[in-house]
Amino acid sequence: MSHRLSYSLIALAALPSIAMVPPAYAGTAEEPSDHANMQAGGDAHSASSPAVSPEEISNQGKSLLNDGKYGEAVQCFRLAAEQGVIDAQYNMGVCYYHGLGVEQNTTEAVKWYRLAAQQGDAEAQCFLGECYEKGIGVAKNATEAVMWYRKAAQQEDAMAQCFLGACYYGGVGVPKNASEAVKWYRLAAEQGLADAQYNLAVCYEKGDGVEMNATEAMKWYRLAAEQGVAEAEYFLGVCYYNGTGVPKNVTEAVEWYRLAAYQGHAGAQFNLGVCYEHGIGIEKNVTRAAMWYRYAAAQGHKDAEKALRENF
């Protein structure tokens, strides 16, 4: 079973909401004329506004980005990034990757991610690793991907830990090593990362890199399912249906199948159809059974196609 790594490169919603910094980009306010100073008693003073630091400009860029003012945000980020502000460099990568306030350019995104990553920013290191793994804006290079994932993972970046675990699980850029995969999955899972929790559950269910343990598998499936991971919801339903790692409870199974089915999981849609057709854990309803079979069949689920041919 391939492990689940469904993250987009950047989660914009994760950017912090920072209070607006006064937009004083110019270092000096307009000074009064000599004539005006003389009229005021000849005591001329320089009317300079307080200097605004590059970090403050970067923070204002974050506020503008969160407000959807992408062009203005990019101006702030660029000004701060060119002065070495790590957050600004990272967010320039965000803007170029998604085409926010600038024309989308993944090569330029990688350039800015790299600058932030080289200064030790864990998120930038993680996303740079993903660019190398997938060949986004840079030539695909699994070894380079693992290097950047590891740097971020060692700083306790949960996403990087999960990605590094997946590299070990699949032998991408490193020799395949399920035990090492489990180690990194666990670190990320214990930080609450849903995909890592799901991957760790799979390892416990199959005995990959860890002793097979249905109870532990169930525990991690539940944690991932409670965060809305459709695959985990489906497997949790299977566990309740079969009584694997938990007392058999077909009514509970139906509820988890339903949650996954509504997210478009074909296996859950088929299983929910079976439950409706035969009245397992829910009142029998052949109309709803046929509906869920059709949803699953539309995704190419062979058993659902067969059920529709033979029974409806």
Structural notes for this entry:
There is one protein chain. The chain has helices spanning 34-39, 54-66, 70-81, 86-98, 106-118, 122-134, 142-153, 158-170, 178-190, 194-206, 214-225, 230-242, 250-262, 266-278, 286-298, 302-311. With 312 residues, it is an all-alpha fold. It is elongated. Among the domains are: 54-119, Alpha Horseshoe (Serine Threonine Protein Phosphatase 5, Tetratricopeptide repeat), CATH 1.25.40; 230-312, Tetratricopeptide repeat domain (Serine Threonine Protein Phosphatase 5, Tetratricopeptide repeat, Alpha Horseshoe).
Layout of SSEs?
Blueprint: H1 34-39, H2 54-66, H3 70-81, H4 86-98, H5 106-118, H6 122-134, H7 142-153, H8 158-170, H9 178-190, H10 194-206, H11 214-225, H12 230-242, H13 250-262, H14 266-278, H15 286-298, H16 302-311
Helix pairs in contact: 2-3, 3-4, 4-5, 5-6, 6-7, 7-8, 8-9, 9-10, 10-11, 11-12, 12-13, 13-14, 14-15, 15-16
Following the backbone from N to C, one meets helices and strands in this order, namely HHHHHHHHHHHHHHHH
**What do we call the CATH topology of the domain at 230-312?**
Serine Threonine Protein Phosphatase 5, Tetratricopeptide repeat
In round numbers, the mean pLDDT is 87
* Quaternary form: single chain
Apparent shape: elongated
Helical fraction: 55-70%
Poorly predicted sequence stretches spanning 5 or more consecutive residues: 4-47
What is the first-to-last residue Cα distance?
32 Å
Helix run count: 16
Beta-strand content bin:
under 5%
